[in-house]
Amino acid sequence: MMPLDDDTLSKLLKVKRYERPPQGYFEQFLRDFQERQRSEMLRRSTWRLALDRLATRLGGLLPGAPEWTLSQIGYAGASVGVLVVATVFTINMLQYPGGRHAGQIASTSTPLMEPVTSTASYPSEDRFTLNTQFRLPEVSLHDHGPAPVSHQQPRYILDTRPVSYEPPYRF
Amino acid sequence: MMSQTLSIAAPFGNIVAEWDEKLVATSAPMTEELQTSEDAELVARAQAGDPTAFDALVVKYSPRLYGLVYHMTANHEDTNDLLQEIFAKAYRSLHGFRGKSSFYTWIHSIGVNMTINFLKKRGKRYHLSLDDLDSGIQNDEELIELTSPSTPVRETDLAELQKRLNEAMMKLTPEHRAVVTMFDIQGMPHAEIAKILGISEGTVRSRLFYAHRQLQTYLEEFH
Question: Which domain holds residue B150?
Fold first, then answer.
């Protein structure tokens, strides 16, 4: 059996040109599409609309950039923004646990613990053993103010970083 | 020229969509140059927020795109769903369209890529859901010649021939089916197909050559 030649194949494929959808199909298609558009617009969240606007603005700044790139930049920008805010808050919390004022009070008030065997101003390394006992200082309910400078006890609370490393900005 | 006028209630007002026989033809060649200027105007209006302008583009291109998707899927329902998706995607992406290519090329690219992705997900499972043949086929001289008494095609019912053609097309890979659809059925030139697929003209020719050899093998009983 001889295979089909190109001309006959071309004529056979021409049969497919006569395949048509049912009458009235395209009118109905447009109506369905419009209905779909309306429902999609109602479903779109504010967040998505904001992202689209961002992408459109970026499109104005970067003419010719494809849509997916603009969307990616939009998402990346939003993510970076969230990360920066989260990082700044975390740093702030580490520097001032419990808030800025609490940090200031902690630096001047009575220490939370003091070693029983303490005789010098600062304990040396060899005085701390596993058996070293600590006692909580007696604090009355009315003792909220900073202790007088003359009775100030040595501090054993270690800061997370030296004061000199604190960043210059504050919120 | 026969034409029908249809009033359609659009979401933001009424538009009048003119359905012309010339446009409803799903496979008639439509050269890029003729489309560019009027499309550019419609696109600019749609980008500015005129919803009737995009509706006009849907009216204009849905028959062509229907043909493209239908000949690749051989299933009317899948074609309808895909066509909705294609226009929805085009509408969402319209603000990113900068006119580097024509709207014609752009919308065809979206259509062919979405259809190829759909076919790859569907795999080898398919169910034929074929459209009816237009009555005009009875007057096609080339087909009359082909169905002369000396050829076996004469003995074959046209509906059966249609089914075998579609089954043969389904044996091709989605990429080969795309070039056969655009070149042999829709009559697009190689250069236009190359632009739509984002490949070289040489690759288009090579895919066509390979696809034709395969189809000739699958359909050799008609000779």
Answer: 138-223
Asked if B11 lies within 8 A of A37 by C-beta distance, the reply is yes
- Indicate the number of domains in chain B: 2
**Is A40 in the B-facing interface, judged by CB distances under 8 Å?**
yes
DSSP structure class, residue B185: I
Tell me: do B125 and B150 sit in the same domain.
no
Gyration radius of chain A over CA positions: 37
Q: In terms of domains, do B142 and B220 share one? A: yes
Say whether both B113 and B149 belong to one domain: no
Q: Do both B79 and B168 map to the same domain?
A: no
H or E element that contains B90: helix B76-93
> Are residues B177 and B87 located together in one domain of the fold?
no
Tens of each residue's pLDDT in chain B, 223 residues:
334 444 443 433 344 344 444 334 555 555 555 567 889 999 999 999 898 999 999 999 999 999 999 999 999 999 999 999 999 999 999 988 988 899 999 999 999 999 999 999 988 788 888 888 887 877 777 776 666 556 655 556 778 888 889 999 999 999 999 999 999 999 999 999 999 999 999 999 999 999 999 999 988 866 5
Q: Residues 6 or more apart from B19 whose CB is under 8 A from it?
A: A26, A27, B3, B4, B5, B6, B59
With CB atoms and an 8 Å threshold, state whether A27 touches B222. no
The total of other beta-carbon atoms located within 10 Å of residue B23's CB is 18
- Write down which residue in B98, B131, B164 finishes a domain: B131
Q: Give the A:B interface size as CB pairs under 8 Å.
A: 145
- Same structural domain for residues B106 and B10? yes
Task: Using an 8 Å CB-CB cutoff, list chain A residues near B157.
Answer: none
**Is the domain of B82 the same as that of B155?**
no
- Pick the residue of A8, A16, A62 with the most B CBs within 10 A to test the interface with B by mutation: A16
Lookup: tokens for B47: 């980008």
Nearest Cβ partner of B216 from A4, A17, A59?
A4
B212 CB neighbours in chain A (<8 A) are 6, 9
